[in-house]
Amino acid sequence: MYRPIKVGVSSCLLGEKVRYDGGHKHDRYITDVLGKFFTFVPVCPEVGCGMPVPREAMRLEGDPEHPRLVTNKTRIDKTEQMRAFCQQKVTELADEELCGFIFKKDSPSSGLFRVKVYNEGMPARSGSGLFAAAVVKHFPLLPVEEEGRLNDAAIRENFIERIFCCRRWKDFLLDSPDLGRLVTFHARHKLLILAHSTSIYREMGSLVAHGKEMRWSELAQRYEALFMKALALHATVKKNTNVLMHIMGYFKRDLSPAEKEELLGVIKEYHDRLVPLIVPLTLLKHYVGKYGQSYLHQQYYLSPHPAELMLRNHV
Prior knowledge:
This protein is α/β, with parallel strands linked by helices. It has helices at 28-33, 45-48, 79-93, 130-138, 153-174, 179-188, 190-194, 198-209, 216-232, 237-248, 257-271, 278-290, 294-297; strands spanning 6-10, 39-43, 58-61, 68-71, 98-103, 115-119, 122-127, 144-146. The chain has 13 helices and eight strands. Helix 5 (153-174) runs antiparallel to helix 9 and helix 11 (257-271) runs antiparallel to helix 12. It comes from Geobacter hydrogenophilus. InterPro entries: 2-thiour_desulf, DUF1722, UCP037004.
């Protein structure tokens, strides 16, 4: 059964004219590329809480941990109006089965990182927008990012990978989950998790091994927390190289001396940052098919997201 991959997004990034000046911040990568795979749930906190378009610009002031939302010129405090909306909206979003959220950077409502907070006239980039903070607090395991940071290839790849993993986990929970199926889920994600954190992978393995000793609800909750925690750590060249060498070990009886030399050479080129990850992976996937490695064929590490997204192509 196909289930849509729903991703929340700041409405202005979809081209909706909801900004304070009546404009938008249409992001073509989000709509034209990600839009082929994701179903977007747009949110504009300002319009959602009843503010007009256009409207007076606002900013965050005071304590970065508990900032106030204040209009720039008339000095009207909009904090409680925004917080009431946030509380209502996160409850509504819980029913959407979101797998990620893309926020508008620098926004006093939707900025995720380093939003300006003014204190006695001096701004410090130390805050988060009120709505973004509410979403993160209510959905602590949800993959979240700002649209500006998606220009960084490593951040973009990690974020999108986490979204697809989140959808697979939600699908798992919806399809009669039990300990046996969790063992299978864990096994298929083994190499993917190892590319992010070997220590968390070992912790997850121990958790699954002792799964019979706890209630299913507790097991699933603890597994999900570790799964998303591991994926939030970026896969590095060093960690990917270790996984590639681990995969190569499955072919020790299959590869000819020339094939081994070629594969080792390509992995070394990746390790030395001369070629992107997609190069050794393509060769490995060729060998998976050639030598009928059914275990590796089931590993999400080899194809964690659609090839059309052109990820894993950066050096």
